[in-house]
Structure formats: C-alpha cells, structure tokens
Amino acid sequence: MSVLEAFRGGLRQVGRSKRIIFWMWGLSFLLALAPAILVSNSIEDSLGNSFKAEKLAQGYDDIWFQEFEADAQALASTFEPTVVGAGAVFKALDGFATGTLFRQFPALLAVGIAYLLLWAFAAGGILTAFEKNISPSLEEFATAGARYWGRFVRLMALAGILYWLIYAYLAPWLDDWFESLTMDSIDERWAFLWKVFTLLLFLAAVWLVNILSDYAKILTVLERRRSMLLSLLRAIRVSTSHFLRVGGLYLLVTLLGLILMLLYAAAAPGASDSTWTGVLLALLLGQIYIAARIGVRLVFFASQMQLCRSLIAAPEPAPPIEPPAESEPVAPSPQDPEQKDAATPPSEA
Questions:
Q1: Which residues, including other chains, have CB under 8 Å from residue 93's CB and lie 6 or more apart?
Q2: Distance (Å, rounded) from C-alpha 185 to C-alpha 199?
Q3: CA 49 → CA 55, 67, 86, 138, 276, distances in Å?
Q4: Each residue of 298-331: pLDDT tens digit?
Q5: Is 48 left (phi over 0), alpha (psi -120 to 50) or beta?
Q6: Stated pTM of the model
C-alpha cells in the first residue's frame, strides 16, 4: 500500500467515526474545565468590583496583567494574553520544541499526565474500531479502551523514558554543538541555518519516538500482544524495514496538522477584542480547532493502521454486514409426483 492510499483510507475511516471525535472533544472539555475554573476564580479575585475590572472590560490592560502575574500561583501562573488566539498554539509549540513547557509551568504537569492517561484509555477503543472497521457504540468503545488501557500505560512509561533521554541529554548536546559551530562565525545567516538544522534533528528524534509509540499500539491491537517491550521492538523492526513509507505518511499527516494550525492562526481573534461577540467567537473557533486537532490525531491512527496492516500482511477487516431486507415468505413449491414416489421408501411385504 502506498502512502497516499493509506492517507486516503485513513481520512475515509475517520469520516465514518465522527462520534469518536465528539466523545474525545467532550472528555477533553471536561478535563480542562476544572483548571479553567481555578484560573477564572483567581482572575475574579484579582479584579473584584474594582476600577481595574471596569477598565479591563473596555480592552486589555497591561498594568493589571503585570500585577496579576506577580501574584499568580500554581495554575493561575499559566494565564497570559497569548492564551487567546494563535499565540496559545505557537507558544505551546515553542515550549514543546524547547522542552520548557512543563519547566516553566510545573502546575501543568498533573493536567498533562491526566490528558495522556485519557488518550491511553481512548487509544484502545479507537484502534479496535479502526481494526474492525466499525463505528462503535459508547459501550464497545469503553470496553476496548479498558482492555488495552493497562498495556498502553506501560507503553507510555517506556516512551516517557525515551522522551526524557531526548530532553535531558540530546537537547543540551545539540545546544552545545550549535555553540561550538557558531562560536567564531560572524555571519548570522549561517548561525540561523545551523540553529534550524539542530532543531530539526531534535524534532526528528521526538517524532521517531512518537512514530514507534503509535505503531507499538497498532501492533498490540492487530497481533493481540501483551508485552509492550516486545511490541516496541516489533514496531522498530517494522518502521526501519519500511522507513520511507512510514516516515512519508507521518510527514503527510503532520503537514495536514500544520495547515490546520495556520488556518486557525489566521482566523482566531486576539485578546484585544472585549465585546461579547468577540469573546463568543474566540470560544467557538477555539473549540472547533480542538475538535479538528482530535480529528487529525485520529487520521494518524487510522492511516497508520491501514499502512501497518499492509506491511505485516494482516487480514483486512470484513465489511459491515447489512441486515437482509424483509421479504414476503415464499410458499413451498409442490413436490413432483415422481420425486415423491422415489423418495418414499417401499413398504414391507
């Protein structure tokens, strides 16, 4: 199977699984609701009925924000003007690429772990639905998620060790290498190109762990594996044996996610709009973007499932069985007299 065939098959499969997108959006919304309420209460306590609240209702007030930032604790310290609009996306992307996201905001660590555990549960239901080519009920989705949740949590721990090695050792080594390469250079263009090159090497390592984690989950479902270490080793063999197709598919779906991100960045309003219409529009666009991001994550799973099935020669899922159409009962045809006589055993004399 080619990369484009796997990509198109993944898009079609996700198109038949819209309810999964809705379920995952709802679970993500509920998970983010408690931290959002805590941050909202901190903002409300800071403003109260003061003159600052009236002034802030007319537009963004940087003086108030500096006072709030100085006193903010725990999750409230994550509130910034960039949380509205495209700034939230690019700041999170920068924090992910540099590894500073959780170091700057350690209060997010618990929320991030809870989100990963949620996806570890959901991955079992998603991959089982894609393996069987069905649109599951909520009960089927939850049952499959519970079946694989423990295994995927163990796999998440293995992947976490690899991510830690990348951020703790590879990233500092790349920074030192960049410094040694540009120490005596006075041309900023070369420094910029070397920085981009080292950043791409870092992202390639992160993406590699992500790819191996995805294929380990897929192989666990396709081959009914229980050992996550063996699943990870099997994913390494499959990915390295078909590196171009595996990497090409990942880059293609990543490009889809980047296009979606740029569209949201162009359409999302900023923090300067304080009207109710602007606030509601920002909320609506933000939720649509989150649902679309979930859809892209499902495209990763579905297209990789299609490709992995062809690479290991796993049997294709049977198409959904349509119930037979109801028809009028057919009266039995009268039996031929000769056949009736031939079928009748001769009587004893």
A1: 261
A2: 19
A3: 11, 16, 30, 45, 19
A4: 999 999 999 998 888 755 555 555 455 544 454 4
A5: left
A6: 0.75
